[in-house]
Amino acid sequence: SQQGEEDPQALSIQEGENATMNCSYKTSINNLQWYRQNSGRGLVHLILIRSNEREKHSGRLRVTLDTSKKSSSLLITASRAADTASYFCATSPTGGFKTIFGAGTRLFVKA
Amino acid sequence: DTEVTQTPKHLVMGMTNKKSLKCEQHMGHRAMYWYKQKAKKPPELMFVYSYEKLSINESVPSRFSPECPNSSLLNLHLHALQPEDSALYLCASSSPRGPERETQYFGPGTRLLVL
After folding, report:
1. Contact flag B42-A103 (C-beta cutoff 8 Å)
2. CA distance, residue B80 to nearest chain A CA (Å)
3. Exposed, middle or buried by CB within 10 Å (0-12, 13-18, 19+), for B110?
4. B65 shares contact with chain A (CB less than 8 Å)
Protein backbone atom coordinates (compact mmCIF):
# COMPACT_ATOMS: atom_id res chain seq x y z
CA SER A 1 0.00 0.00 0.00
CA GLN A 2 1.18 3.49 -0.69
CA GLN A 3 2.42 5.54 2.22
CA GLY A 4 2.17 8.87 0.50
CA GLU A 5 -0.57 10.48 -1.46
CA GLU A 6 0.17 13.52 -3.54
CA ASP A 7 -1.91 16.25 -4.97
CA PRO A 8 -2.47 17.51 -7.45
CA GLN A 9 -1.98 14.50 -9.70
CA ALA A 10 -1.11 16.85 -12.54
CA LEU A 11 -0.25 20.53 -12.70
CA SER A 12 0.19 22.75 -15.73
CA ILE A 13 1.66 26.25 -15.32
CA GLN A 14 3.39 28.96 -17.31
CA GLU A 15 7.11 29.51 -17.14
CA GLY A 16 7.96 31.91 -14.34
CA GLU A 17 5.06 30.87 -12.14
CA ASN A 18 5.44 28.98 -8.88
CA ALA A 19 4.43 25.32 -8.57
CA THR A 20 3.25 23.78 -5.31
CA MET A 21 2.85 20.06 -4.75
CA ASN A 22 1.56 18.39 -1.61
CA CYS A 23 2.22 15.02 -0.07
CA SER A 24 0.44 13.28 2.78
CA TYR A 25 1.60 10.17 4.56
CA LYS A 26 0.14 7.76 7.09
CA THR A 27 2.72 6.62 9.62
CA SER A 28 5.45 8.21 11.69
CA ILE A 29 8.58 9.01 9.73
CA ASN A 30 12.20 9.84 10.34
CA ASN A 31 12.47 11.92 7.19
CA LEU A 32 10.70 12.76 3.98
CA GLN A 33 12.36 13.15 0.62
CA TRP A 34 11.39 14.58 -2.73
CA TYR A 35 12.54 13.09 -6.00
CA ARG A 36 12.12 14.18 -9.58
CA GLN A 37 11.73 11.91 -12.60
CA ASN A 38 11.95 12.97 -16.19
CA SER A 39 9.81 10.91 -18.51
CA GLY A 40 10.80 7.25 -18.44
CA ARG A 41 14.11 7.84 -16.71
CA GLY A 42 15.63 7.35 -13.29
CA LEU A 43 14.76 9.42 -10.26
CA VAL A 44 16.91 12.27 -9.05
CA HIS A 45 17.03 13.18 -5.38
CA LEU A 46 16.03 16.80 -4.74
CA ILE A 47 15.86 17.38 -1.02
CA LEU A 48 15.52 15.61 2.32
CA ILE A 49 13.76 17.05 5.35
CA ARG A 50 13.99 15.41 8.75
CA SER A 51 11.10 14.96 11.12
CA ASN A 52 12.45 17.63 13.47
CA GLU A 53 12.67 20.22 10.69
CA ARG A 54 9.78 22.37 9.52
CA GLU A 55 11.21 24.00 6.44
CA LYS A 56 14.17 23.57 4.14
CA HIS A 57 15.45 25.41 1.09
CA SER A 58 17.62 24.38 -1.81
CA GLY A 59 17.98 26.82 -4.67
CA ARG A 60 14.50 27.38 -6.12
CA LEU A 61 13.04 24.60 -3.97
CA ARG A 62 11.29 25.07 -0.66
CA VAL A 63 10.02 22.11 1.31
CA THR A 64 7.84 22.22 4.39
CA LEU A 65 6.94 19.42 6.75
CA ASP A 66 4.04 19.31 9.19
CA THR A 67 4.33 16.13 11.21
CA SER A 68 1.13 16.87 13.14
CA LYS A 69 -0.79 16.79 9.87
CA LYS A 70 1.48 14.17 8.31
CA SER A 71 1.96 16.32 5.26
CA SER A 72 4.68 18.01 3.25
CA SER A 73 4.75 20.48 0.41
CA LEU A 74 7.26 21.20 -2.32
CA LEU A 75 7.37 24.67 -3.81
CA ILE A 76 9.30 25.35 -7.00
CA THR A 77 9.70 29.07 -7.56
CA ALA A 78 10.13 30.79 -10.91
CA SER A 79 9.53 27.58 -12.80
CA ARG A 80 11.23 26.79 -16.08
CA ALA A 81 10.27 24.53 -18.97
CA ALA A 82 13.11 22.24 -17.84
CA ASP A 83 11.24 21.64 -14.56
CA THR A 84 8.67 19.61 -16.50
CA ALA A 85 8.80 16.19 -14.82
CA SER A 86 7.07 13.98 -12.28
CA TYR A 87 7.74 14.73 -8.64
CA PHE A 88 7.49 12.10 -5.92
CA CYS A 89 7.65 12.30 -2.17
CA ALA A 90 9.20 9.34 -0.41
CA THR A 91 9.21 8.22 3.20
CA SER A 92 10.99 5.59 5.22
CA PRO A 93 8.49 4.72 7.96
CA THR A 94 10.92 2.70 10.04
CA GLY A 95 13.98 4.77 9.26
CA GLY A 96 15.51 1.80 7.52
CA PHE A 97 15.92 0.91 3.90
CA LYS A 98 12.25 0.45 3.12
CA THR A 99 11.18 3.45 1.06
CA ILE A 100 7.64 4.16 -0.02
CA PHE A 101 6.90 6.61 -2.77
CA GLY A 102 3.82 8.74 -3.10
CA ALA A 103 1.68 8.62 -6.21
CA GLY A 104 3.48 11.60 -7.72
CA THR A 105 2.57 14.92 -9.30
CA ARG A 106 3.14 15.41 -13.00
CA LEU A 107 4.25 18.98 -13.59
CA PHE A 108 4.12 20.57 -17.01
CA VAL A 109 5.71 24.00 -17.42
CA LYS A 110 4.76 25.79 -20.61
CA ALA A 111 7.36 28.03 -22.21
CA ASP B 1 31.76 9.00 -9.81
CA THR B 2 28.15 9.60 -8.73
CA GLU B 3 26.52 7.42 -11.31
CA VAL B 4 24.50 4.26 -11.20
CA THR B 5 24.53 2.40 -14.49
CA GLN B 6 22.04 -0.17 -15.68
CA THR B 7 22.15 -2.55 -18.61
CA PRO B 8 20.43 -3.17 -20.87
CA LYS B 9 18.41 -0.02 -21.46
CA HIS B 10 15.68 -1.98 -23.19
CA LEU B 11 14.81 -5.67 -23.08
CA VAL B 12 12.17 -7.68 -24.90
CA MET B 13 11.71 -11.25 -23.78
CA GLY B 14 9.31 -14.10 -24.18
CA MET B 15 7.63 -15.80 -21.28
CA THR B 16 9.96 -18.80 -21.50
CA ASN B 17 13.19 -16.80 -21.67
CA LYS B 18 15.79 -16.29 -18.99
CA LYS B 19 17.46 -12.91 -18.86
CA SER B 20 19.33 -10.76 -16.37
CA LEU B 21 19.33 -7.07 -15.56
CA LYS B 22 22.56 -5.56 -14.31
CA CYS B 23 23.29 -2.58 -12.11
CA GLU B 24 26.65 -1.11 -11.13
CA GLN B 25 27.82 1.72 -8.90
CA HIS B 26 31.26 2.88 -7.81
CA MET B 27 30.29 5.31 -5.07
CA GLY B 28 31.19 2.91 -2.29
CA HIS B 29 27.53 2.51 -1.39
CA ARG B 30 26.74 -0.65 0.53
CA ALA B 31 22.96 -0.61 0.09
CA MET B 32 21.43 -1.40 -3.28
CA TYR B 33 17.81 -1.57 -4.34
CA TRP B 34 15.57 -2.89 -7.09
CA TYR B 35 12.32 -1.12 -7.88
CA LYS B 36 9.58 -1.85 -10.37
CA GLN B 37 7.69 1.04 -11.94
CA LYS B 38 4.62 0.79 -14.12
CA ALA B 39 3.61 3.66 -16.37
CA LYS B 40 2.31 6.72 -14.51
CA LYS B 41 2.81 4.97 -11.16
CA PRO B 42 5.41 5.44 -8.43
CA PRO B 43 8.34 3.06 -8.04
CA GLU B 44 7.57 0.01 -5.92
CA LEU B 45 10.33 -1.49 -3.82
CA MET B 46 11.22 -5.10 -4.68
CA PHE B 47 14.51 -5.94 -2.96
CA VAL B 48 17.16 -4.30 -0.82
CA TYR B 49 20.69 -5.56 -0.29
CA SER B 50 22.78 -4.27 2.57
CA TYR B 51 26.44 -5.21 2.67
CA GLU B 52 25.76 -7.79 -0.03
CA LYS B 53 23.11 -9.53 2.05
CA LEU B 54 19.42 -9.55 1.16
CA SER B 55 17.79 -7.22 3.66
CA ILE B 56 14.30 -6.73 2.26
CA ASN B 57 12.20 -8.87 -0.07
CA GLU B 58 8.82 -7.29 -0.63
CA SER B 59 7.09 -10.61 -1.32
CA VAL B 60 8.25 -10.59 -4.90
CA PRO B 61 7.38 -13.66 -7.02
CA SER B 62 10.18 -16.19 -7.33
CA ARG B 63 10.41 -15.60 -11.08
CA PHE B 64 12.48 -12.56 -10.00
CA SER B 65 15.75 -13.58 -8.40
CA PRO B 66 18.17 -10.93 -7.13
CA GLU B 67 21.89 -11.39 -6.71
CA CYS B 68 24.58 -9.16 -5.26
CA PRO B 69 27.92 -10.68 -6.24
CA ASN B 70 29.97 -7.83 -4.77
CA SER B 71 29.60 -4.37 -3.29
CA SER B 72 29.43 -2.69 -6.70
CA LEU B 73 27.13 -5.00 -8.61
CA LEU B 74 23.50 -5.95 -8.38
CA ASN B 75 21.74 -8.35 -10.71
CA LEU B 76 18.12 -9.25 -11.22
CA HIS B 77 17.60 -12.63 -12.86
CA LEU B 78 14.35 -13.06 -14.74
CA HIS B 79 12.71 -16.35 -15.60
CA ALA B 80 9.25 -17.31 -16.84
CA LEU B 81 7.94 -13.77 -16.61
CA GLN B 82 4.38 -12.76 -17.37
CA PRO B 83 3.23 -9.91 -19.63
CA GLU B 84 2.14 -7.98 -16.52
CA ASP B 85 5.79 -7.88 -15.46
CA SER B 86 6.46 -5.43 -18.26
CA ALA B 87 7.68 -2.25 -16.57
CA LEU B 88 10.64 0.02 -15.95
CA TYR B 89 13.06 -1.64 -13.54
CA LEU B 90 15.10 0.81 -11.53
CA CYS B 91 18.22 0.19 -9.54
CA ALA B 92 19.34 2.51 -6.77
CA SER B 93 22.10 2.69 -4.20
CA SER B 94 22.72 4.51 -0.97
CA SER B 95 25.31 4.78 1.72
CA PRO B 96 24.09 2.92 4.82
CA ARG B 97 25.81 5.39 7.12
CA GLY B 98 26.26 9.11 7.49
CA PRO B 99 23.94 12.11 7.34
CA GLU B 100 22.81 11.39 3.78
CA ARG B 101 22.30 7.67 4.26
CA GLU B 102 18.67 7.84 3.21
CA THR B 103 19.43 9.51 -0.11
CA GLN B 104 19.14 7.06 -2.96
CA TYR B 105 20.92 7.42 -6.27
CA PHE B 106 19.02 5.91 -9.16
CA GLY B 107 20.11 4.44 -12.44
CA PRO B 108 18.28 5.27 -15.68
CA GLY B 109 16.36 2.00 -15.60
CA THR B 110 15.77 -0.97 -17.87
CA ARG B 111 12.52 -0.90 -19.80
CA LEU B 112 11.29 -4.48 -19.97
CA LEU B 113 8.64 -5.81 -22.31
CA VAL B 114 7.42 -9.37 -21.84
CA LEU B 115 5.64 -10.88 -24.82
Report:
1. yes
2. 25
3. buried
4. no
